[in-house]
Design goal:
Number of helices: 2
Organism: Aestuariispira insulae
Number of strands: 34
Structural class: mainly beta
Pfam family, one: DUF4139
InterPro entries: DUF4139
Strand content: over 45%
Protein name: DUF4139 domain-containing protein
Largest sheet: 11 strands, mixed
Shape: elongated
Length: 472
């Protein structure tokens, strides 16, 4: 194996550095990371491989524990070099995995001194890697000390047989750029939306963030990062990746104003791609939040919804008391409403305008431009209902008939100082027809009817309906 000088190997929570005489025959030139919403990542990098003439076996350190072995691809960017084979082995080679092999041995630990800009190095004994490194320095023991390990040539060479390797056939001695690409488990992201609801509950101030997590067993430094919104198929199940010590979570503080912080998405092969416009460092075990969307004045509609999800009415049912309508916010994703850009699926949190009250959260489904969506975030306190079956009659001969007529009374009570409208949704199996009703209904879909019922302040309203259901 040939050796070079002055490079870093990116392997785990931080950079794993070797002494200058102990570097393997490669150098990292370019690094791109793509994260998906199902915990999958695509790593695409360019390495310069240093080789002799003929057959060369070159180690590929730093791919991380999350490496999906059968996805590894090594492509030399010159016709003078050909790949004979690429070998991956089951042992992980992230920071945690490597250091675990040296428990009980001497180790050198380096930490950057901010005053001098240089490394301060200490020699110690690695006692444990149970929940991160535990190192004895002289007469004191430190857990998860800041900094990074420095391995000697002998220590690194002891790992060589377990590293992923590529065998090259070359026509001469030299340096060859090669594209190294692979999929990795443990690289994922989700959208997180923080919404502030106006006092009159008609508008939102919205900010969206990319919550990017790295549990792949490798740190990525100076990477070009993009995230993909949408659902990509996987044939292989995601593998659990052993966790390194918990890293920190940080909010990326790019020097941009709020309205300028949006990252414009681009439609790409039926998905949406969001690219961070500056290089990023992703620590192993860490998370980072990146602003990507905002809306100052998004129009919304608040609804009280009382929905019966039991569609089977062909039996006599008990009284359902003290039901509480759901609180829902409905929005339309268009420019007229104050938005008009794709919103990836994500967690949607709602706060009051005064900032000291959390109102609730739920998942916002992916919302393309022009679509309507809603978020159910809680239940009303001052509005309640009782649902009572007051009549039931089977139709047709025989006890097995599923044709029937039934009558319900739904009593809605409002303790608020202002009147409200409650959408009452009832579902039916089979062919149904409303025979009698105290308020007009609308057919929501093939299975459900909806009544918009006005309930006065400090008062109540009774909705009564009779339905015939036939099941041929």
């Amino acid at each position: 194996m040939a050796w070079g000088k002055g490079k870093q190997i990116f392997t785990g929570m931080t950079a794993l550095v070797l002494v200058a005489s102990a570097l393997p025959a490669w150098a990292l030139e370019k690094l791109e990371v793509t994260a998906y919403q199902n915990g999958l990542g695509l790593v695409d990098e360019e390495r310069v491989l240093v080789h002799d003439s003929g057959t060369n076996r070159i180690a590929l350190p730093g791919l991380g524990r999350g490496l999906i072995a059968d996805s590894l691809s090594v492509s030399p960017q010159t016709e003078d070099v050909a790949v004979v084979n690429a070998l991956t082995l089951p042992d992980g080679l992230g920071m945690h995995d490597i250091l675990t092999r040296f428990v009980g041995q001497a180790i050198t630990w380096a930490d950057r001194n901010p005053a001098t800009g240089k490394d301060d190095r200490r020699d110690g004994i690695l006692l444990s890697m149970e929940n991160g490194p535990v190192i004895q320095f002289g007469d004191r023991v430190e857990m998860n000390p800041p900094g990074r390990p420095i391995l000697s040539k002998d220590q690194f060479q002891s790992l060589g047989s377990r590293l992923p390797q590529v065998t090259l056939q070359t026509r001469g001695k030299g340096e060859t750029p090669a594209r190294v690409r692979y999929l990795a488990d443990g690289l994922g992201w989700q959208a997180v939306y923080n919404a502030t609801l106006s006092d009159d509950e008609s508008r939102l101030r919205l900010s969206g963030e990319i919550m990017l997590e790295n549990r792949s067993g490798r740190a990525y430094e100076g990477a070009r990062v993009q995230v993909i919104a949408g659902s990509v198929n996987r044939q292989s199940a995601a593998r659990p990746v052993p966790q390194a010590a918990m890293g920190r979570m940080e909010l990326n503080a790019a020097p941009m104003l709020a309205d300028e912080a949006d990252i414009s998405g681009v439609s790409s092969h039926d998905y949406w791609s969001y690219t961070v416009p500056y290089p990023m460092d992703l620590a192993d075990g860490g998370s980072i939040k990146i602003p990507f969307a905002s809306a100052r004045d998004l129009r919304v509609k608040k609804r009280y919804v009382l929905e019966n999800r039991d569609y089977g009415h062909w039996y006599r049912g008990p009284v359902q008391a003290d039901l509480r309508p759901a609180l829902r916010l409905e929005l339309k994703n268009d420019a007229e409403s104050g938005l008009g850009r794709p919103l990836p699926e994500g967690l949607f949190r709602i706060y009051a305008q005064n900032g000291n009250q959390f109102l609730g959260e739920n998942c916002l489904k992916a919302l393309a431009e022009g679509e309507r969506g809603e978020v159910e975030y809680g239940q009303a306190f001052d509005i309640s209902a009782d649902r009572k079956q007051v009549d039931f009659e089977k139709l047709g001969a025989g006890s097995r008939s599923n044709n029937y007529e039934t009558t319900y009374e739904i009593t809605l009570r409002n303790a608020r100082p202002a009147g409200v409208v409650v959408d009452v949704i009832e579902g039916f199996n089979g062919e149904w027809r409303i025979l009698e009703e105290s308020a007009r209904h609308a057919k929501k879909d093939a299975y459900r009817a909806v009544w918009s019922v006005a309930v006065p302040a400090k008062g109540e309203t009774v909705l009564r309906y009779k339905v015939r259901v036939e099941n041929p």
